[in-house]
Amino acid sequence: MYCAVTDKIPQFALANGLYRGDLPDYFSDLTWVEEKVCAKYCITAHVTRLFHSNDPSQPRVFHGNTCTHDMNIISTASVLPRTPTDVNGYIGVVFLGPSKAVKAEEFGAIFRVRKQKIWAFLIWLVNHNKLYSEIVLDRNCLALYPDDGSLPGVGERIIHDSESDFIARS
Questions:
Q1: Nearest to 129 by CA among 25, 13, 30, 48
Q2: What is the tens place of the pLDDT at every residue in 120-170?
Q3: Are 153 and 84 a contacting pair, CB within 8 Å?
Q4: Is the preceding omega at residue 81 within 30 degrees of 0, hence cis?
Q5: What is the SS3 assignment for 71-82?
Q6: Residue 96 DSSP SS3
Q7: CA distance 28 to 22
Q8: Which of 49, 144, 151, 161 would be a feasible disulfide site paired with 111, CB 3.0-4.6 Å?
Q9: At 94, is the secondary structure helix, strand, or coil?
C-alpha cells in the first residue's frame, strides 16, 4: 500500500490495511465536531478556551484555542451518528473574562454541525472503510442535529471564568 503523492507507505498505515488515501473533496470542509459525531472510537476529550474580542465594534468575535487530551478508548459505537449528548460528554468550553451571556449560535463555525454532511460522511465511511462496514446508521440520531448550526447542547458545556487572571487579548 503506497501513498500516491510520496510513493511511500504512510507512516501510520504500516500493514494495517486501513489507509484509503485522501477523502473526496466534498468532505474537505468537515468540522472537527462533525468528525467526532461520526467517530466509531472516541479517544480524545476537547477543551476549548475562548476570549471575547476587546474590540467593541466586534462583540461576537471570539479567539482562543482548543486542546485535545488523549484518553483510553471509552466508547466504541455500534450505532452512528453519535447523539449530541454523547459528543458533548467529550467537550468542555471555558470562557475567560467578564461574564457575558453567550448563546451557542454565536459560536459560528467553532462547533458547527451540518446534518447532510454528517449523513453523507457516514454513508461514505460504511462503503469505504472496513471498520465501519457493520455500523448501524440511525436516522433518529441524525434528526437530533440541526440542518446547519451549532452542536445541540454545547451551550450547557460553557464554564464562565471571570475570576481568573488572564491577559486580555486584542
A1: 13
A2: 999 999 998 888 999 999 999 999 999 999 999 988 877 777 655 444 443
A3: yes
A4: yes
A5: EEEEEECCEECC
A6: strand
A7: 9
A8: 151
A9: strand
Name residues whose C-beta falls within 8 Å of residue 40's C-beta, 6 or more positions apart in sequence. Answer: 76, 77, 80, 131, 132, 135
Kindly state the cell numbers that stand for 2: 503506497
Task: Look at residue 170 and give its three-state secondary structure.
Answer: coil
Q: Residue 154 CA to chain centroid, in angstroms?
A: 11
Distance CA 124, CA 27 (A): 10
Strand-pair partners of 44 = 70
Per DSSP, the three-state class of 156 is helix
CA distances from 123 to 27, 39, 154, 157 (A): 12, 13, 25, 29
Q: Which long-range contacts (CB under 8 A, 24 or more apart) does 71-75 make?
A: 71/42, 71/43, 71/44, 71/45, 72/43, 73/41, 73/42, 73/43, 74/42, 75/41, 75/42
pTM, 2 dp: 0.73
Residue with cell 498505515: 13
